[in-house]
Amino acid sequence: MRRTATLLLLALLACRSDAREPSAATSRGSADAALAPRWQASPIGNVRLEGADPLRVQTGPHTLIIPADGESFAPPYTVRATLQKQQGRLQEGYGLVFGGESLAEDEARQHYSYFLVRGDGTYLIKRRDGPSTSVVRDWTHHAAVPRDTEEGGQPVTLAVHVTSTEVRLDVNEQQVATIPAAELRTSGQVGLRVAHDVRLTISNFRVTRGG
Q1: Pairwise CA distance, residues 186 & 189, whole Å
Q2: Exposed e or buried b per residue across 183-197, where buried means at least 16 C-beta atoms within 10 angstroms of its C-beta
Q3: How many Å apart are CA 29 and CA 138, to the nearest integer?
């Protein structure tokens, strides 16, 4: 009788221990769920987001990656991030978005400026106004933009410094262009743009208000 009671007690304690201590897999799932809402993709189809910082992105078609809170910024401010392409073709660009409006809507309703780099050592500056896009600075070679190696893309830190009169664009702390503010959209949402079929890691995404 005593042995039976002891076995029952041990079984009850084991059940209570299991309820208090979730498995490692369950814990990881909860952590990912808590981090994921920081970001959203637009459009949401055929894109995979994992984590928060670093954020790991896998695209199908090109997409915008935007903070889920949708906060807007007015000059002066600086947006920056460190990006590293893990997989993707040489000519596929990726980089920062700023001055955005309706970024979570259909592409035909979106408005924003963007600053991209790609693995051939070039950068691009464009703006989107609904269904149309305009080139502000076409793909341009610059020594600050790292080229892909046999192992893949190299880490690159991009920064956009926005004031009421001009926008300065940096790659790895080197200025690559200065554009009059009138040529770009400067007030609005911020985020990232990633081209077709690219696997990318993004870390240290930050927006700083002020000059």
Answers
A1: 9
A2: ebbbbbbbbbbbbee
A3: 43
User: Quick check: is 9 in a domain?
Assistant: no
Residue 95 lies in a domain: yes
Predicted confidence (pLDDT) per residue in 54-68, tens digit: 999 999 999 999 999
Q: Is residue 25 part of a domain?
A: no
pLDDT (tens digit per residue) in 129-177:
999 999 999 999 999 999 998 878 899 999 999 999 999 999 999 999 9
In three-state form (DSSP H/G/I as H, E/B as E, the rest C), the secondary structure along the chain is CHHHHHHHHHHHHHHHHHHHCCCHHHHHHHHHHHHHHHEEEECCCCEEEEECCCEEEEECCCEEEEECCCCEECCCEEEEEEEEEEECCCCCCEEEEEEEECCCCCHHHCEEEEEEEECECEEEEEEEECCEEEEEEEEEECCCCCECECCECCCEEEEEEECCCEEEEEECCEEEEEEEHHHCCCCEEEEEEECCCCEEEEEEEEEEECC
| CATH number of domain containing 114 | 2.60.120.560
Rounded Cα distance, 93 and 91, in Å: 6
Name residue 191's amino acid.
G
- Which amino acid, residue 211? G
Range of the domain at 182: 40-209
Residue at 65: amino acid letter: I
